[in-house]
Amino acid sequence: MQRIIGTKLGAAVALLAVLLALTIVPTGAQAADEAPRARPATTATSNGVPTMVDPNADLGAHTVGPETRWADSIYFTSEVKAGGHDIGLLVHVNKVPNGFGRLVSFAVTDVTTGWYKNYMVGVDEEDFHWSTTGLDISAPGLKWTGNAEKQSVSLDVPWGSLDVTLKAQSPVLYYGGNGVFPLLGATNYQYAFPNMRTTGTLTLEDGKAQRVTGQSWLDRQWGPTTDDPSLQWTWMNLNLPNGDAVAIWDTLTDTDEESWATVVHRDGSHEVVAVEPVANSADRFWTSPVSGNKYPTRWRVNIPALNAHLTVTLTGTNDQEMARGENGRLEATAAFTGTYEGKKVSGKNYVEMIGDWKPKS
């Protein structure tokens, strides 16, 4: 089943998918003069809908676009147990060659105690490698290799280390239903492995390696975003008890807003549905002492097509901002409760926020 609700975004996604399929654009937003990779331009989901990304080959680095904010990003968040505690992990490699360069980020949240620490470092071009033929990333202290089935990540930072294996356990989620969607006027490519079994070790400041077991959500995205200084977005991921995985985007500027979700069901079929703008129901604001940004810490998420009414709340601590000077982004552990398809549900998730959020009057 492929259902796209008739919103402005849904229509744009559907039209873009048709145009791309008709013109057989190579995956990865390749430049017109770039030789396509030795693989099909499209692959198919289990419901027969062509996709514009290849979950394995597109783990490799992509051809850089001309835009200042063109980015190549791979990112995973984890909900694991370690030493009897609930732990949230984040590892992010983000390459913006025409902008701030190359960043490696790592964060750990002890949801049980509220302890939190992050690390974000810029990497010089000569010290950074991301293969164009598959997942093989290296930078000082980081090694990330693998494929769409299994990945290995080792990371050392001044205050700890992580060494984990991720194994895919569920169908791939293709944002927009086919892996390509308009992001406030720009074409972006994105897909996710929503459920990756995660095992390994985590070592923190005490030097003691703790065994970790749990689940990760891995996101792969590339393409440009607008230079509009008023840009804000909220991203959330949800793994539901019935096996559905839901990714929510709420993007807005002073002149535009798009709020929608992609759902992948256990059989691999997709739905793209409208979401009531989550920014409208955000509350319990927290102000970062580093960037000065305000962020909400609770949201009410309503997805009418899925009969879903959820409350999402930050867990562990409100202070989970990753900041470089005045530029901050919230990357935070959260939990949700409510109803989905009319049934009571609860679970753990992550929330990402970009921008300075002010309470709505």
TrEMBL record:
Protein's recorded name: AttH domain-containing protein
Composition skew (Low complexity), residue ranges: 32-45
Domain AttH intervals: 126-223
KW Signal (keyword) present: yes
Source organism phylogeny: Bacteria, Bacillati, Actinomycetota, Actinomycetes, Kitasatosporales
Region annotated Disordered, chain positions: 32-54
PANTHER family hit by this protein: ATTH DOMAIN-CONTAINING PROTEIN-RELATED, TERPENE CYCLASE ASQC
InterPro entries assigned: AttH-like_dom_sf (IPR023374), AttH_dom (IPR010791), Fungal_Dehydratase/Hydratase (IPR053112)
Signal peptide: 1-31
Domain of life: Bacteria
Entry keyword set: Signal
Source organism of the structure: Streptomyces aurantiacus
